[in-house]
Amino acid sequence: MPQMAPMSWMMLFTFFTMMFIIIMTMNYYIYIPKMEKMEKEDIFSNKTMNWKW
Q1: What is the Cα–Cα distance from 37 to 50, expressed in whole angstroms?
Q2: Complete DSSP assignment for 1-53
Q3: Which of 1, 27, 32, 52 maximizes the CB count within 10 A of its CB?
Q4: Which of 15, 20, 22 has the alpha carbon at shortest distance from 7?
Q5: Measuring CA to CA, how many Å separate 33 from each of 17, 29, 44?
Q6: Where does residue 15 rank: exposed (0-12), middle (13-18), buried (19+ CB within 10 A)?
Q7: CA nearest neighbour of 13 among 24, 4, 1
Q8: Opening angle at CA 30, ends 32 and 25, nearest 5
């Protein structure tokens, strides 16, 4: 099995690194979070907790 030259290893490393960065940025910017529509009552509702001390 022939050995690869060091320059070839460096090119492979940079290629896969760039592909990884491109794919991660695409995943970050493509994702659209689904916002639940909140009614006015839900926004201003105060949920009180009754603690039994």
Answers
A1: 28
A2: -PPPPHHHHHHHHHHHHHHHHHHHHHHHHH--PPPPP--HHHHH---------
A3: 27
A4: 15
A5: 27, 11, 23
A6: exposed
A7: 4
A8: 130
CA 23 to the chain's CA centroid: 11
Distance CA 33, CA 28 (A): 11
- The arithmetic mean of pLDDT across residues 7-14, rounded, is 88
Nearest to 30, CA basis, from 22, 19, 38: 22
User: What pTM was estimated for this model as a whole?
Assistant: 0.52
**10/7 Cα distance (integer angstroms):** 5
